[in-house]
Amino acid sequence: MILGTHCTRRCAFCNVEKGFPQRVDPEEPYRLLEAVKVLGLKYVVITSVTRDDLPDGGAKHFAECIRVLKENIPDIKVEVLIPDFRGNRNSLETVLAQKPIVLNHNVETVPRLYPTVRIGADYRRSLEILKWSKEIDRGIYTKSAIIVGFGEKKEEIIKTIEDLREVDCDFLVIGQYYQPSLKYHPVVKYYTEEEFKELEEVAYGLGFKFVVSKANARSSYKAFESLLST
Ligand code: SF4
């Protein structure tokens, strides 16, 4: 996770520290490179806190991280899990210009629950990020994730899956919400294995290339495997 430890948003499910963001460290891409080399990784997912304080939302820093990794490890595959950049298309273009293999942006929940669950975000804006990504570079796969258990209805989840397909999203992850502590949003429902399976079938039926739908699945789970399906 790049761009510091403090997020400028306050999603009701997320345990990441909130508060005053840190200075952007220009050395971070090189430290990232070092870590990837030491770990011998061939597939890397780079994500960040949301940085609404930065004019580009941190896009140039994302791009620099991809550039440094790809320049120094020629066969590396880099997936980016980006924030919404407050709907700044130029920021998205900056990141995509460095050709990550996958552009991941999570819608997280159904639109009705945005005001209480994903405070400060906008459902349509998030869908637009995924749509723009395909407009800018069709060769880059797109991916999104939904967390269930906040009190959404089944029809709302299915509509969200449909919305994601409508913007040509390739990969989908659906996972169960677990409450990090009592100060976070309560878990309204625990989904059964059968219910996750049903959602997976709905998503495949709509044409997703790769779907992971299970309680413990998170956005980066089986990230590399999703590519094998293409
Ligand atoms: S924007 Fe991302 S990192 Fe920030 S609080 Fe929400 S989920 Fe957590």
Beta-strand residue fraction? 15-25%
Number of discrete domains: 1
Rg: 17 Å
Query: What is the number of beta strands?
Result: 8
Report how far apart the termini are: 26 Å
Small ligands present: iron/sulfur cluster
The CATH class is identified as Alpha Beta
Shape: globular
What layout of secondary structure does this protein have?
Blueprint: E1 6-7, E2 17-18, H1 28-39, E3 43-47, H2 59-72, E4 77-81, H3 89-96, E5 102-104, H4 114-117, H5 123-136, E6 141-148, H6 154-166, E7 171-176, H7 193-206, E8 210-213, H8 223-228
Parallel strand pairs: 1-2, 3-4, 4-5, 5-6, 6-7, 7-8
Question: If you had to describe this structure to a student in words, what would you say it looks like?
Answer:
The protein is an alpha/beta fold and 230 residues long. The protein has one domain (6-228): Aldolase class I (TIM Barrel, Alpha-Beta Barrel), CATH 3.20.20. It has helices spanning 28-39, 59-72, 89-96, 114-117, 123-136, 154-166, 193-206, 223-228, and strands spanning 6-7, 17-18, 43-47, 77-81, 102-104, 141-148, 171-176, 210-213. The longest helix is centred in the N-terminal third of the chain and has 14 residues, at 59-72. The chain starts with 5 loop residues before the first strand and ends with a helix. The model has no long low-confidence stretch (mean pLDDT 97). Bound molecules: iron/sulfur cluster.
